[in-house]
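Field log, afternoon session.

UNIT: design team B
ACTIVITY: writing a sequence onto a fixed backbone
BACKBONE:
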């Protein structure tokens, strides 16, 4: 029994390491699909009446003040190498005053001894830190177990990640998702810490977001299609799934389309999935996002240039955002979110057409 458990734990660690390796070696992004952020034209302000120094990128979240509306979204944990990544990216986040999320804490659950590989609070003492677990495991967990994941980090919120497409491609992945909404409802009622419903690269429709809202969720990370494709990564890892992987590599609601779908809902919105520049961040904000998030480019910059590589990537993102803010005459993030935009036809096609039917399909 003990041996079987250890084998399963090693399998999780190996799988997480394989994911990280593939993200450096292979093209793991969507192929034909884009985020549709290129369909958002920010209207130029030729007369901004504003100095670059007056542009303020700070924004509140979860009772804290971020220096810029950004989050390094969850990637890893569970091994010594993963700890190093978490520690260094947490340092970068703290320095830049942006939020930081650890990867799935599933390994920590199976092996409490690996808890330290997620414990980065001392490196990010003041910024927003996010715990993370998948909906597959969450269905089998008690509320106290979620609390343990949060307490281990001193986290400000818990990301409950939705990765159904990834699980379906993974030969050993979960196949049961029937209790998903119930988990969110239970946690919204019983957990004292906010929950972020987080996709992992397939985006979110209005219908899903409305159901999450009804279940008590107030924060979502749409993590849309057009960036990292988990279908692609799993197919690279398990060649027997090649056909499925090719067929579904681009599956999902593009990031910009997810924001258009969620327009007007009373949800705090993180836009991730294919955010690669500060202009992408600005466009996402103009579509109503509160924050933007990135995973793959931060990891790649870190692996290529170490701590400085990741630091420079984040600094560049903020610099590019500031330029977009000045060029749209936006003094604050609130103003950037109200910036004038012209949307392309492909993106407009995602506008909700009618009041969606109540309840489930
Ligand atoms: C190497 C790597 C590992 C990831 N692991 C997790 C994870 O454990 N939990 C999670 O919620 N998302 C995970 N993600 C998904 C990201 O947080 C993000 O939602 C997705 O990759 C889209 O953003 P991107 O296009 O900037 O990479 C991972 C992404 C990468 C690149």
């Amino acid at each position: 029994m003990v041996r079987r458990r250890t084998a399963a734990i090693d399998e999780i660690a190996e799988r997480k390491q394989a994911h990280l390796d593939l993200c450096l070696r292979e093209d793991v992004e969507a192929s034909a699909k884009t985020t549709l952020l290129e369909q958002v034209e920010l209207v130029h302000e030729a007369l901004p009446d504003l100095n670059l120094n007056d542009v303020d990128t700070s924004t509140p979240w979860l009772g804290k003040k971020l220096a810029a509306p950004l989050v390094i979204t969850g990637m890893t944990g569970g091994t010594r190498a993963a700890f190093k990544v978490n520690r260094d990216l947490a340092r970068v986040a703290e320095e830049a005053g942006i939020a930081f999320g650890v990867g799935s804490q599933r390994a920590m659950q199976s092996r409490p001894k690996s808890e330290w590989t997620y414990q980065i609070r001392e490196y990010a003492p003041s910024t927003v830190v996010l715990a993370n677990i998948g909906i597959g495991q969450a269905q089998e967990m008690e509320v106290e177990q979620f609390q343990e994941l949060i307490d281990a980090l001193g986290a400000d919120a818990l990301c409950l990640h939705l990765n159904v497409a990834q699980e379906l491609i993974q030969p050993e992945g979960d196949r049961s998702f029937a209790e998903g909404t119930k988990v969110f409802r239970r946690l919204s009622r019983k957990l004292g810490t906010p929950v972020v419903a987080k996709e992992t690269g397939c985006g979110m429709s209005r219908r899903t977001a409305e159901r999450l809202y009804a279940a008590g969720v107030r924060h979502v990370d749409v993590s849309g299609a057009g960036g990292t494709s988990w279908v692609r990564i799993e197919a690279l890892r398990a060649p027997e799934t090649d056909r499925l992987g090719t067929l579904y590599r681009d599956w999902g609601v593009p990031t910009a389309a997810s924001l258009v779908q969620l327009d007007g809902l009373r949800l705090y919105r993180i836009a991730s999935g294919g955010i690669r520049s500060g202009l992408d961040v600005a466009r996402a904000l103009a579509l109503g996002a509160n924050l933007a998030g990135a995973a793959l480019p931060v990891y790649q910059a870190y692996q290529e240039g170490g701590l400085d590589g990741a630091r420079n990537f984040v600094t560049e993102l903020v610099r590019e955002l500031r330029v977009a803010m000045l060029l749209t005459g936006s003094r604050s993030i609130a103003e950037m979110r109200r910036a004038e935009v012209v949307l392309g036809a492909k993106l407009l096609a995602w506008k909700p057409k009618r009041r969606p039917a109540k309840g489930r399909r």
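LOG NOTE: The longest helix spans residues 296-327.
NEXT ACTIVITY: expression trials, pending approval
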